[in-house]
Amino acid sequence: MKNRSSYPRLFPWAVLFLILLGGCSPGDQDAPVGRDDPAMPAKKHPGAKDREYRKRVIQFWEVYRKALMLQKAGHWPESAELFRQALELDPEHESALYFLGNALFEVGRYEEALNAWRHMARVNPGSARAHFQLGTVQACPEAGAPWNLDAAATEYRRVIELNPEQTGPQGRLAEIDLARGRLDAAAARFEKLLRSNPDDASAFYLLGFIRYRKGDRLEAENLLRRAAKSIQGQSPVGGVLGEGDSTAKLVTTFPQKRLFGKLWLDLQKRLKPESVGPKEAEAEYEKVNQAYEAILARGSE
What is the rounded average pLDDT for all residues in the chain? Predict the structure, then answer.
């Protein structure tokens, strides 16, 4: 009975506790705004600033989705313009920066693509796809691209640090070693890549070329045959747009703009696995050898 008499004294404190608890409700706080997912403030009675913010968010997503649709349809210049408009509304949106860079790269505006991906990497230094694209544009052999193999290699190594399971950067580092004339280092990387990805046609093809350069014609022929077999039946290679992206199936010129992309991408049109013999391997790799000499000269610039 004495315990019951204490309830009236505790009641005011309980009411105060509930009031304070209610004042700390997450519903009264602005939700964290992610770089890639703008959120609207959770306010019951938004002021002018909140209404303006909501308006900008709605405008951003309208423009962003239109830009994605244009890019998926292959309208690269138009999509680039809309991604720029989206970034005026949200300058640090990672995917908008990423896709803007892709569109600019596609139409040969390489310096602008480089700047977009650099901005993306500043927004999120841990973005593997930003660093991968920075490597891609700086290892691009096309005229007007910012050729810098040292910088490209640094970016690919950064991707491996961020995501050691990715095999793509290993192949690109092997290509850079090959462009510098480091045949043994390139061969070691291609062999490592093929242990984790035994269907990589480019690795078979370029490793075969290394064997050809070193005089091992029989192994070069075998590797060329395996490259031709690996590439048979593959769908057209699309751009490097990132996992889960809505335009991932879009065919682009990204692969052709790889360091050695033009040498092997049309292999399935030229060679069948059963048709590869000593003469075919000799003719194939001698043609590659001429193109390689030009790349080798650039690699030493």
Answer: 83
Query: In which domain, by residue range, is 125 found?
Result: 54-134
Task: Tell me, yes or no, whether 122 lies in a domain.
Answer: yes
Please, which pLDDT band fits residue 301 given cuts at 50, 70 and 90? low
Euclidean distance between CA atoms 146 and 4, whole angstroms = 81
Same domain, 173 and 297: yes
Question: Residue 162 — pLDDT band, cuts 50, 70, 90?
Answer: very high
Judged on CB neighbours under 10 Å (0-12, 13-18, 19+), 156 is: buried
Same domain, 296 and 189: yes
pLDDT at 244: 37
Are 127 and 190 in the same domain?
Answer: no
297 shares a domain with 171: yes
For residue 95, what are its two tokens?
Answer: 């995917």
